[in-house]
Amino acid sequence: MGRTEEIAAPAGTYSRAIINRLLIDLSWASSHLEGNTYSRLDTRELIEHGKAARGKAAIETQMILNHKTAIELLVDNAASAEFNRYFVMNLHSALAENLLPNPADEGRIRQHGVDIWKSVYRPLSTPQQIEEELNTLLDKAGQILDPFEQSFFMMVHLPYLQPFADVNKRTSRLAANLPLVRANLCPLTFLDVPTQAYSRATLGVYEMTRVELLRDLYVWAYERSTQEYLAIKQDLAEPDPLRLAWRDFIKQTLREVILQPAQDPLSSIRSAVLEHIPEPQQTEVQALIVEELRRMHEGVLARYGLRPSEYAAWRAVHGH
User: Fold this and answer.
1) Are 151 and 270 part of one and the same domain?
2) Number of separate domains in the chain
3) 211 lies in some domain
4) In the prediction, which pLDDT does 294 show?
5) pLDDT recorded at residue 153
6) pLDDT at 275
7) How far is 211 from 205, CA to CA, in rounded Å?
């Protein structure tokens, strides 16, 4: 279950091929489990076109956008990411941005005790203890070779430890995808997972340290995901090999263009291409960058490490 044609390809190849669909599905489904009322169509409009749904609370829009950023972080770093403090803390920081009462808690070990809603379970409350247990958890996760076991291990143990002030379950759901992304397996998107079933399965871990219900939910949810993704893969266009080969250069060049609104965009692109790209490929790579600049909008800014304010400043000079 979940095997793809890219199983032997470099880590993250499959997820990059289906990234547009994955951003929408996983952002929507994971947010829905947190009570977010965005529809799948609303989520698509927000992610693809930067259009927030009318009548929705700002916190819901922020939650969706944070998922998008975190998923891009996950896929972009598939080849190098490991279960260590750097990865987990930055994943949490991306998911928690602008959502916590104390912004200092984004990506930081929890500094206080917490209660679990509808549960008598009390997680550890001393920061030093939490830190030690998190190190142990990540060390154990790193020793697990099977991607599914590693994925499920994170689903169980991150929420149980509650290493962060909030957003722990969201972090565990995305962290559970890292082993699958690295192995070029279908992702676990949580599509159609009932909120009550997920809540009860997690409470089984909190209350009784029993994983059977969460295990069954994991298997059901993964089977549901594979049905969706193995069906759509055949309709996907093959990645442009030139775009793939110069992916990092294209992103960096576009980022520098936007951050320097006083410079002429075409001249900046031409100079960068002449300096870094072999002559036979210069014309095509330049055309790719110009096309990406033409298509740029608020919904793709995180891909280039840009903020809306930086893009707005550039548009004020150059229009679109």
Assistant:
1) no
2) 2
3) yes
4) 85
5) 98
6) 93
7) 6
**Residue 299: its pLDDT value, please?**
78
**Distance (Å, rounded) from C-alpha 22 to C-alpha 24?**
5
**pTM (two decimals):** 0.76
CA distance 308 to 306: 7
Q: What DSSP designation does 188 have?
A: -
Burial class (CB in 10 A: 0-12, 13-18, 19+), 80: exposed
Domain check: are 223 and 268 in the same one? no
* Per-residue pLDDT at 136: 98
CB 69 within 8 A of CB 94: yes
Do 106 and 86 fall within a single domain? Answer: yes
| Burial (CB count within 10 angstroms: exposed 0-12, middle 13-18, buried 19+), residue 309 | exposed
Angle at the Cα of 187 from the Cα atoms of 54 and 153, rounded to 5 degrees: 110
What is the C-alpha to C-alpha distance for residues 287 and 285, in angstroms, rounded to an integer?
5
Domain span at residue 287? 241-318
Angle at which helices 265-276 and 247-259 cross, to 10°: 150
Residue type for position 300: V
The last residue of one of the domains, among 235, 257, 282, is 235
| Of the candidates 196, 179, 197, the residue with the CA atom closest to the CA atom of residue 188 | 179
Residue 263 lies in a domain: yes
In a domain, 77, yes or no: yes
Low-confidence ranges of the chain (pLDDT < 50): none
Q: Are residues 37 and 23 in the same domain?
A: yes
Do 148 and 249 belong together in one domain?
no
Which pLDDT score is estimated for 238? Answer: 58
Predicted local confidence at residue 237, as pLDDT = 53
Let me know whether 148 and 255 are in one domain: no
